[in-house]
Design a protein that fits this description.
Distance between the termini: 49 Å
Strand content: 15-25%
Order of helices and strands: EHEHEHEHEHEEHEE
Largest sheet: 7 strands, mixed
Helix content: 25-40%
CATH class of the largest domain: Alpha Beta
Number of strands: 9
CATH superfamily of the largest domain: Formyl transferase, N-terminal domain
Structural class: alpha/beta
Shape: globular
Bound molecules: 5-O-phosphono-beta-D-ribofuranosylamine
Low-confidence stretches: none
Length: 224
Amino acid sequence: MNSMEKRLNIGVLVSGSGSNLQSIIDHRESGLLDVNIRVVISNNPDAYALERSKKHEIPSVVIRHSDFRDREDFDRKVIEVLKDYAVELVVLSGFMRVITPAFLHAFPMKIMNIHPALLPAFPGVHAQQRAVEYGVKFSGCTVHFVDEGVDTGPIIIQSVVPVYDDDTEESLAARILKEEHRIYPRAIQFYAEGRIGVTGRKVRIRDSDRTCESALHNPPLAGF
Ligand code: GRF
């Protein structure tokens, strides 16, 4: 980046462990992700994600949803804090609250989420368990922009993992989480580079290589 160019300011919203936050911090620190992590906001005062932000000297703010009359009031406070920190892109990272239209209007096509399934399959909660129960042979994760639906917004990047016969919810979740840690920073960096264009539901990444030409099979075709 040219020294005159300004880094993108991001704000990360968390509720729990924050392993995706950690991956974003690690990519930032290794220079692969060229953003300022301005603030981490948690609705849960006990979220381990808060320890991670403290350790890396990133400002954090706890906004307890139980302190607010309704979702709108809570979101108004979150928006206020994000604006105070001049946040330009909001990154939902295991944030367990449904956001209101007021939030979407404050940050139109500027809110990203990660979901542990290949959307539009298995939106909502318990995505990994439902993938195992359904018997799909592949699942994965999806980074998408947030719209008014639940996990329905335009898809930015997806990663595919196999589902094996002896998988449990936990073993599949662990395999998917590894990929989450790879694709979320990548999606944020695409955004920071100004390479993301959105037309309707479709996201185009400018100048990205077309390298996914071969098909995946599970179980493998093995010479068939
Ligand atoms: C991840 O599986 C993410 O896809 C989902 O919640 C989990 C959060 O994990 N939205 P972490 O808090 O980033 O460790």
